[in-house]
């Protein structure tokens, strides 16, 4: 293999606080740190999977990366350009390279526009091409996502969920982006349709050389689609590594527990092994390590000192744990307790 | 390959089944929604009912519970609960049975719990109605029931309204309401689909404990084959209103026979093994009002032949305790395409 390419996307200390309630009626507002100083890189042609429980900050992160949501602090660089330094016009031009596909194919599509109008709308907005060239591009896009030319004259509500997601994908591809955030892009679909959409996204990645930030709560989908994986818990990255490191040799107790909790069709009739305790409120996360209230390996230091994200071994895996395992194994959280850290 | 322990439940002979359903069909507004669904549930047994959206899982269970809207026409050749003929049961008798002999839990607890009553009050009501005990006893039972489903400080939480609880806790509360009178049969309709994987595991662990303790018969409805594999003794796969395959859980996962079951298994990405490319069943599920003739899977089936559009395949034996509804079972090899 050749030397790895420079990262297409570089995210540094990205941070988002939402305040809710409070004000003149109720005293101090509650601050939710939805995304808490998150850093990562995505190389061109790579798929980085982002996984974690509901409310851990996946969507907030994805939207900040595209500057659809302003960060409280931190930096996003795309292809060497700091997005924070761009004015509105240049950001708009930059956005042609960066698109997003959402979970809900209903909400995303204007019911009064035909499918053809919906798909070429980004071209119209960005003033790309002539009516004739847009028509040619429309035919090309319909073919790419597996729709037929006659579909262009119909309205989105006439389509099934899977077909609607194809329309959203065609729309996202219209401007020839290099990078796409897929936020639960196949999660709302039935399994047989989910497989069609996942295959389509993989084919498009190959043929168009796309780079994905792929957000999902489904561990099977994340393993299938990702090259590398980032695991989030309460706004923070707790572990990052190649998909084989994360799924076959997880180092962080949360990753191991998540894998163990996921029902398997290969183990036969078994007892479920749940993580004990409720997910704490993101508005009031535990001090020290945020996972300590549910961690089977927690020690006194975990209650007071937040563990930084540190390399585990020499191979690009990192974990935020005072006692990272070299291989926690998905089946046994207590199998190994690594050297003391911190 | 993978190892599945032999099914401990479902003895071949033994006590009479808790629930017997034969040829259950439902039409709504003249549209056939489910077609000749049959099922037998024994003490301590978990039957997994699996299928994609719209395949008729909920309608089947609501028909057994007699909870469908009035315009639904329900027919069956046999419907017995604990030996009692439900086809002859009056509306009043059904009300007595629901909540005491047979209970149901749902995906969305907010639709099953009454938002204006405390969780405790809902259990107390059920216990008083079915067992005729006094309020004091019923309240103690409610606290006990909430404790059993793992709600901390049950003596205080008993006076909470549903909206004061987290999603996972509400799900537990609904289970407590359903199980307060120790039903012999439990129908769980996607009880964990809306939950995060960690909370899902907690609820499934709880259901497993209760199942073992009370030796209920449980019908676990889900579209998640992982849940079924870990939980069920037997599995029934539905497609477009019909049961197309049924077998002990191990056989469904290790030696599925129907092309739809095989395709479904190959289309789900696993978190445990690498898959280069998923098998994608082409096309979509046919609408209930316009099913294809003959085998309803024919338009999507890789093995379809001319005869498949002509005759409706019957559910036939194809292995020990294993049945599938496909006309070409003998020609489809286990090693071939899904
Ligand atoms: N506009 C907002 N105002 C206030 N709080 C918000 C806002 N958007 C998100 N949050 C909070 O930020 C946290 C992270 O939310 P986010 O939607 O990013 O999570 P997620 O990981 O995408 O969850 P899910 O898996 O449910 O989609 C949550 O606690 C959420 O309630
Ligand atoms: N009250 C009703 N009136 C008319 N049609 C109905 C009614 N309830 C359900 N149906 C139809 O019956 C079919 C089966 O629905 P059912 O709810 O049983 O599916 P399901 O397998 O439970 O799906 P899901 O996984 O989405 O819950 C669907 O086509 C549905 O549209
Ligand atoms: S730092 Fe401590 S509490 Fe946190 S994951 Fe590691 S062992 Fe568990
Ligand atoms: S009967 Fe024919 S169409 Fe139906 S599943 Fe079998 S081979 Fe396929
Ligand atoms: Mg989200
Ligand atoms: Mg249903």
TrEMBL record, chain A:
Q: Does the keyword ATP-binding apply?
A: yes
* Domain called ABC transporter: residue spans: 9-259
Location in the cell: Cell inner membrane
| Protein name, as recorded | Peptide/nickel transport system ATP-binding protein/oligopeptide transport system ATP-binding protein
* Membrane topology field: Peripheral membrane protein
Identify the InterPro entries for this entry. Answer: AAA+_ATPase (IPR003593), ABC_transp_ATP-bind (IPR050319), ABC_transporter-like_ATP-bd (IPR003439), ABC_transporter-like_CS (IPR017871), Oligopep_ABC_C (IPR013563), P-loop_NTPase (IPR027417)
> Which keywords, in A-to-Z order, does the entry hold?
ATP-binding, Nucleotide-binding, Transport
Q: What SUPFAM superfamilies does its record include?
A: P-loop containing nucleoside triphosphate hydrolases
| PROSITE patterns membership | ABC_TRANSPORTER_1, ABC_TRANSPORTER_2
Its main subcellular localisation, reduced to a broad class, is: membrane
Protein family (similarity comment):
Belongs to the ABC transporter superfamily.
| GO terms, molecular function | ATP binding
Q: Which SMART domains match?
A: AAA
- Where on the tree of life does the source sit, at the highest rank? Bacteria
* Pfam families, per database record: ABC_tran, oligo_HPY
Q: Which PANTHER family match?
A: D,D-DIPEPTIDE TRANSPORT ATP-BINDING PROTEIN DDPF-RELATED (PTHR43776:SF7), TRANSPORT ATP-BINDING PROTEIN (PTHR43776)
Is ATP-binding among the key words of this record? Answer: yes
TrEMBL record, chain B:
Q: How does it sit in the membrane?
A: Peripheral membrane protein
Instruction: Tell me the InterPro entries matching this sequence.
Output: AAA+_ATPase, ABC_Ni/Peptide_Import, ABC_transporter-like_ATP-bd, ABC_transporter-like_CS, Oligopep_ABC_C, P-loop_NTPase
Q: Which GO terms describe its molecular function?
A: ATP binding
Q: What domain of life does the UniProt record list for this protein's source?
A: Bacteria
Which keywords does UniProt give here?
ATP-binding, Cell membrane, Membrane, Nucleotide-binding, Transport
What the entry lists under CDD domains is as follows: ABC_NikE_OppD_transporters
Its subcellular locations are:
Cell inner membrane
Q: What family is it from? A: Belongs to the ABC transporter superfamily.
Q: What is this protein called?
A: Peptide/nickel transport system ATP-binding protein
User: Which classification does the entry list for the species?
Assistant: Bacteria, Pseudomonadati, Pseudomonadota, Alphaproteobacteria, Rhodobacterales
């Amino acid at each position: 293999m050749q030397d790895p390419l420079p990262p297409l996307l570089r995210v540094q200390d990205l941070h988002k606080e939402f305040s809710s309630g409070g004000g003149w009626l109720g005293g101090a507002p509650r601050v939710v740190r939805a995304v808490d100083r998150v850093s990562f890189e995505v190389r061109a042609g790579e798929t980085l999977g982002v996984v974690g429980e509901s409310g851990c900050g996946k969507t907030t992160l994805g939207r900040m990366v595209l500057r659809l949501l302003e960060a409280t602090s931190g930096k996003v660089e795309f292809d060497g350009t700091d997005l924070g330094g761009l004015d509105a016009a240049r950001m708009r031009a930059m956005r042609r390279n960066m698109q997003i596909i959402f979970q809900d194919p209903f909400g995303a599509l204007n019911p009064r526009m035909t499918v053809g109008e919906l798909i070429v709308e980004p071209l119209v907005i960005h003033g790309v091409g002539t009516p004739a060239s847009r028509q040619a591009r429309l035919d090309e896009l319909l073919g790419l996502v597996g729709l037929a030319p006659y579909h262009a004259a119909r309205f989105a509500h006439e389509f099934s969920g899977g077909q609607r997601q194809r329309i959203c994908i065609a729309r996202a591809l219209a401007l020839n982006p290099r990078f796409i955030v897929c936020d639960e892009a196949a999660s709302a679909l039935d399994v047989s349709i989910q497989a069609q959409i996942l295959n389509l996204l993989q084919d498009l990645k190959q043929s168009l050389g796309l780079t994905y930030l792929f957000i999902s709560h489904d561990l099977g989908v994340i393993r299938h689609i990702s090259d590398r994986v980032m695991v989030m818990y309460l706004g923070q990255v707790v572990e990052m590594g190649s998909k084989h490191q994360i799924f076959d040799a997880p180092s962080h107790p949360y990753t191991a527990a998540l894998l163990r909790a996921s029902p398997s069709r290969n183990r036969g009739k078994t007892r479920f092994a749940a993580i004990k305790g409720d997910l704490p409120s993101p508005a009031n996360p535990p001090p020290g390590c945020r996972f300590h209230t549910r961690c089977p390996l927690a020690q006194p230091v975990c209650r007071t000192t937040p563990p930084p994200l540190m390399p585990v071994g020499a191979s690009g895996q990192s974990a935020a744990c005072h006692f990272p395992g070299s291989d926690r194994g998905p089946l046994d959280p207590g199998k190994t307790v690594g050297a003391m850290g911190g | 390959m993978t190892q599945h322990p032999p099914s401990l439940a479902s003895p071949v002979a033994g006590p009479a089944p808790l629930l017997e359903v034969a040829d259950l069909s439902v039409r709504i507004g003249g549209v056939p929604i489910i077609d000749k669904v049959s099922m037998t549930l024994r003490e301590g047994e978990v039957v997994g009912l699996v299928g994609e959206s719209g395949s008729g899982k909920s309608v089947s269970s609501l028909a057994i519970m007699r909870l469908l809207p009035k315009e639904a026409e329900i027919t069956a050749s046999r419907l017995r609960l604990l030996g009692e003929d439900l086809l002859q049961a009056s509306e009043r008798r059904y009300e007595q049975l629901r909540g005491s002999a047979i209970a149901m839990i749902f995906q969305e607890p907010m639709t099953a719990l009454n938002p204006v009553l405390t969780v405790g009050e809902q259990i107390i009501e059920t216990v008083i109605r079915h067992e005729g005990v006094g309020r004091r006893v019923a309240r103690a039972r409610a606290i006990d029931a909430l404790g059993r489903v793992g709600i901390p400080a049950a003596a205080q939480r008993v006076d909470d309204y549903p909206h004061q609880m987290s999603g996972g806790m509400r799900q537990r509360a609904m289970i407590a309401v359903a199980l307060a009178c120790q039903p012999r049969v439990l129908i769980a309709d996607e009880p964990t689909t809306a939950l995060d994987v960690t909370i899902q595991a907690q609820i499934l662990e709880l259901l497993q404990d209760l199942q073992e303790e009370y030796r209920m018969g449980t019908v676990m409805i889900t579209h998640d084959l992982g849940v079924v594999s870990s939980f069920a003794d037997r599995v029934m796969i539905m497609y477009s209103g019909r049961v197309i395959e049924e077998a002990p859980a191990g056989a469904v996962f290790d030696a599925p026979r129907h092309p739809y079951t095989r395709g479904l298994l190959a289309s789900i990405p696993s978190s445990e093994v690498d898959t280069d490319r998923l098998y994608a069943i082409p096309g979509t599920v046919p609408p209930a009002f316009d099913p294809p003739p003959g085998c309803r899977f024919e338009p999507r089936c890789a093995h379809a032949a001319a005869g498949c559009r002509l005759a409706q395949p019957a559910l036939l034996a194809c292995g020990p305790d294993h049945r599938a509804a496909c006309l070409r079972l003998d020609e489809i090899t286990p090693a071939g395409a899904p």
